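Box S2. Input/output pair 1.
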Amino acid sequence: MPPDGELLARSLRGADASAPRRVPTLAVVTLALLIGSPGWGAGEAKPDEVPAAAQDTKFSSAQLAQLVAPIALYPEGLAVQILMAATYPLEIVEAARWRTKNASLNGDALDKALESQDWDPSVESLTHFPDVLQRMSDNLDWTKDLGDAFLGQKDEVLDTVQRMRAKAYDSGALKTTTPNRS
């Protein structure tokens, strides 16, 4: 079984030619989030479309740190997918249940089966990480809060993740590795 980084890369670029529809959307949204583009990414609500709960709730720095701590040291691409997917808690639950029923699907078969689903691409990408998806479904309050924080305080959430990553890197707990291309 390939390492998580390789699975993430495969899921982001598509495992075969039949799945290219998700790849451009994920790449564009991820790039927009990482460089702080003023444009609105796919699946990202404009300020006037942000749910009232996300607009009314302002999380403190300590609360944001607590919310992002479980994902801060994941590979950046996976952490961003989790943040985006957390804005769709109902789809997370649906996808986790679907993934449990279809646990034997992997690779191309999983991508083919996902074509019949109408979930946000970020949620679809997490089906390649069933443990992560299940944890998000099992901890729905945390998932909803993470999504609300991301919608209402995106820059602060991303800054908090980067600060945690930098602190872990400085302490030696986080190391950058190059993929093994064999």
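Box S3. Input/output pair 2.
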Amino acid sequence: MSWLSYSSLIPPNLFILLIAMGLVLAWRWTRLGLIVATVACACLYLASTPVVAEYLFHCATGLTDVIPRLPSDAPPGAIVVLANDFRRGQRYTVGH
């Protein structure tokens, strides 16, 4: 499944995926599917409001006190961002 990656499982993509799954579920189990789709719509709306974004930002900045500090006063020599994503690409030949 190359269309599904970790970046598909974070908001807002997660909520859009849950809405689609809820609508598919609604064909078989109407009540369950509509509940899943409605909750996902509410979460998508709430995640896009400035109030929730500000709250999440303050929660994330509150975690900076938990991060251990370096014993020296020297600035770090590198910034490392840990992330991973894999996408298969088509191979193109030159001249064809």
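Caption for Box S3: The first helix runs from residue 13 to 28. The CA atoms of residues 2 and 87 lie 7 Å apart.
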